[in-house]
Amino acid sequence: MTDRRAQGEVTATEDGRLAIPAMLNGRQTTLVARPWHTLLETLRDQEGLYGVREGCGVGMCGACTVMLDGEPVSSCLVLAPQVAGREIRTVEGLAAPDGTLSDLQQAFIDHTAFQCSYCTSGFLITAERLAEEHPDASREEIRHYLAGNLCRCGSYVKILDAVADLLERRRAGRTAD
Amino acid sequence: MPEPLRLFQPTSIEEAVAVLAELGDDAKVVAGATALTLLYRQRLIAPGALVSIGRIPGLKTIEVVDGELRLGALVSHREVELSPVVRGSIPVVADAFGKVANVRVRNAATVGGVMAESDYASDPPAVFVALDAVVDVQGSNGKRSIPASEFFVAFYETALEHDEIVIGVRVPVPPAGTGAVYHKFVTRSSEDRPCVGVAGVVRLHADGTVADLRVAVGAAAETPQRFRDTEALAIGKPLDADLIAQVADAYADQVDTLDDMRGSAWYRTEMVRVWVRRAIESAAAAPAR
Ligand SMILES: Cc1cc2nc3c(=O)[nH]c(=O)nc-3n(C[C@H](O)[C@H](O)[C@H](O)COP(=O)(O)OP(=O)(O)OC[C@H]3O[C@@H](n4cnc5c(N)ncnc54)[C@H](O)[C@@H]3O)c2cc1C
Ligand code: FES
Ligand code: FES
What is the CATH number of the domain that holds B268? Predict the structure, then answer.
């Protein structure tokens, strides 16, 4: 095992910014940011990952959700240097490399679980972790887990349907294996 | 944004403390960054240096030793919420951390962070105060332990010196037969901060008289409020509706409630009365542990 910390040293660039090594959607990369930049800004402005969205900017809406070492967090509340040596996954990392959508993404489409879709990437990341952590979650448990993700268009019922259906599909897949 | 901002990533407590001692108030500790990012980005603070403590080893432990639950400063809220060790020793601690904000904030926010932040509207502090927890800190002058009830000094103010960091919180495991609950009363959305949060701890003798009764009220005043004289009045008496009402009224009288967008001072006083009563009732009925 390589020591995560050894790979995670933040160094200064020539122009006084920080070079922050991290795994981003499965590839080793170096993020470049000022110490006060949030992960949200860095992913959008530097990496062009526009699936990471800014809503409230204060941790309440979930539009900016990314996975950090496998757990959903608000990227608006993460300072870029904090991710040194860690693993980040955004909505762009959910589909297969050839572009095939994940079963979760497909479930959102099948249930039209969005209207404007601004909140969708955050819901997908949160739901992906929910499905891993609680494969047998009840509708009530799904509601509780997703309560911190807000949808201004009010697609909640469809989102719940999509996630409940996904869990169902994965369970059926498991028993078929 | 003010430039330059220096970043330190110490790998030991001693190293972190040395940086804090040298830079004084210009340096800010960062743990989960959920509070710090907001303060900084809203320009409420303008530190010249950040001391990110995330790589200091040994601060992520959750264990029960010598009848105490010990939580390291870097343990996340979510880890406390899900920990079988916490659930098996003092379930109310897991319950209170599980009621904080949303799953994203709980994944990032740390035990040390919520203590050092001393936000009057946080949930865990009242539980720690009710359970007689102790906060372990370390600074240039070495280690010291501060009772949770003395750690929170005022609005966003703690007993920490500028060169001290929180290294952990220790919570005595209550004796078997003790019921402990935390009620979070919210007035806006379900994942909002509390308008009032009440932690209640009750143990009864076999004859129904009170062996132990502890109540701490959070989010209603600058710091968690606990009134030991009031608690003492209940000891040895039968826990009936009159006694519970007496304690609840005494808390409502004594908490100097504040006004904010989650409730007026008057409303909070009435909610303290209601939720102290309910906390005692439900702690008395809680499964014996
Ligand atoms: C949207 C949102 C909703 C929230 N809702 C709730 C809620 O309902 N209930 C609730 O209880 N909490 C809530 N919180 C969380 C809480 O108030 C703090 O944000 C959190 O506990 C801080 O933890 P942190 O590890 O992120 O600290 P940081 O942001 O890293 O630090 C907070 C402060 O503590 C200092 N600090 C951190 N660790 C240490 C240490 N070990 N030693 C010394 N100083 C230290 C920092 O310098 C800083 O001043 C919410 C937060 C957000 C963003
Ligand atoms: S933009 Fe980060 S939670 Fe709303
Ligand atoms: S679909 Fe528009 S915000 Fe959710």
Answer: 3.30.390.50
pLDDT, tens digit, for every residue of B52-93? Answer: 999 999 999 999 999 999 999 999 999 999 999 999 999 999
Q: What is the mean pLDDT of chain B?
A: 95
Determine, yes or no, domain membership for B1. no
- Which of B9, B11, B37 lies closest to A38 in CB terms? B37
Tell me which residue in B30, B34, B102 faces A148 most closely, judged by beta carbons. B102
How many domains does chain B divide into? 3
- ipTM comes to 0.92
What is the model's pLDDT at position A9? 81
* CATH number for the domain formed by residue range(s) A2-90: 3.10.20.30
Contact B102 A149 (CB under 8 A): yes
Residues 6+ positions from B94 with CB-CB distance below 8 Å: B80, B81, B82, B83, B86, B87
The shortest C-alpha distance from A92 to chain B (Å) reads 19
Per-domain residue ranges for chain A?
A: 2-90, 103-176
d(CA B144, CA B245): 38
- The domain over range A103-176 is classified in CATH as 1.10.150.120: yes
Domain residues for the domain of B127 are 62-172
pTM: 0.95
Do B164 and B187 have their domain in common? no
CB A107 within 8 A of CB A50: no
Q: How far apart are the first and last CA of chain A?
A: 31
pLDDT for B171 beyond 80:
yes
Residue of A nearest to B102 (CA): A148
Q: How far is the CA of A151 from the centre of ligand 3 (A)?
A: 5
